[in-house]
Amino acid sequence: MTSELETVQEIGRWFFDDYVPLWNELARDATRDPAVLLRYWSPPLHFIVEDPDTRRTVNGWATTEEDILAVLREQHRPLRAASYVDTTVLDRHIFAYTPNAGGIDAIWSRRSTTTEIERLLVHFEVRRHHNGRWQVTSIVAQATSEQTIDAARAAGFTEPN
Questions:
Q1: Is the pLDDT of residue 55 over 90?
Q2: 0.90 exceeded by the pTM?
Q3: Computed over its alpha carbons, how large is the radius of gyration of the chain?
Q4: Is CB count within 10 Å lower at the N or C end of the chain?
């Protein structure tokens, strides 16, 4: 039987050591095929992204792989325009709901070589697929200026323009 701690550690390794570096690489390199991310994101995938750029605001289900890739392209577009280099994880919390389901909260600082492009409070719901691989089932993102998850929650919502 898998313990809660083992599940949290497994989710953390999968997400922060495998998924996040791949997402960063895809955001930097427009020549890479973004479909590789479908190993981590598969339909149906729920998105709630509150963004001052209304083209990036999403609240709904991506029911096809093309829907998912369209959301991904729109998330990458302004990052590439701002010479995106990397995402720094300023804070993180990982939760195991069961041995096959969990949640991840993080503060992302998406950066160019010299400045922060954006800072987000993000929440991911993940599940272990029947083949043993973890998958993201839901993503919620909200702009913040805070350094920690607790401070971002205490600060309340930032309304998109």
A1: no
A2: yes
A3: 15
A4: N
The span from the CA of 84 to the CA of 78, in Å, is 9
Report the alpha-carbon distance of residue 96 to residue 4 in Å, rounded.
6
Tell which wins on pLDDT, 38 or 51: 38
Nearest to 126 by CA among 90, 149, 153, 94: 94
**Whole-number Å distance between alpha carbons of 126 and 104:** 8
Range 4-155: architecture per CATH: Roll (3.10)
* Per-residue pLDDT tens over the stretch 108-146: 999 999 999 999 999 999 999 999 999 999 999 999 999
Identify the residue with better confidence: 81 or 161.
81
91 beta partners:
107
Confirm if 81 and 98 have CB atoms less than 8 A apart: no
Q: Which token pair is 52? A: 């001052």
Which pLDDT belongs to residue 125? 98
C-alpha dist (Å) from residue 9 to 85, 91, 93, 95: 27, 16, 11, 10
